[in-house]
Amino acid sequence: MLKLIKFILLLGVALLGAGFASINPEPVTLNYYFSDITVPLGLMVLVMIGLGAVLGVASSLLLMARVRRENQRLRRRARLASEEVNNLRTIPVKDR
């Protein structure tokens, strides 16, 4: 059910983007360091939105990787602490 909702939302966004691109056919010149190109305004906006989405996902993945590493490190420390507690519990207590 969730996959169907995601698919419908993705289809809606794609149709919205296609509609936006079709009603904005004015040419725009993109100047970059070595050359320049002329593309329709709608296409330029969609490409820039897509590039922003890709960069956002990439930065989120980097953050998630850092959090996962920290989580693994903390789990390892908790496991070692738990093993140490269990070892201390098995040591017999000496009477004075």
TrEMBL record:
Keyword Oxidoreductase: no
Domain Lipopolysaccharide assembly protein A: 24-85
Transmembrane segments: 37-67
Domain of life: Bacteria
Cellular component GO terms, alphabetical: plasma membrane
Protein name: Lipopolysaccharide assembly protein A domain-containing protein
Coiled coil feature spans: 64-91
Pfam families per record: LapA_dom
Keywords: Cell membrane, Coiled coil, Membrane, Transmembrane, Transmembrane helix
InterPro entries: LapA_dom
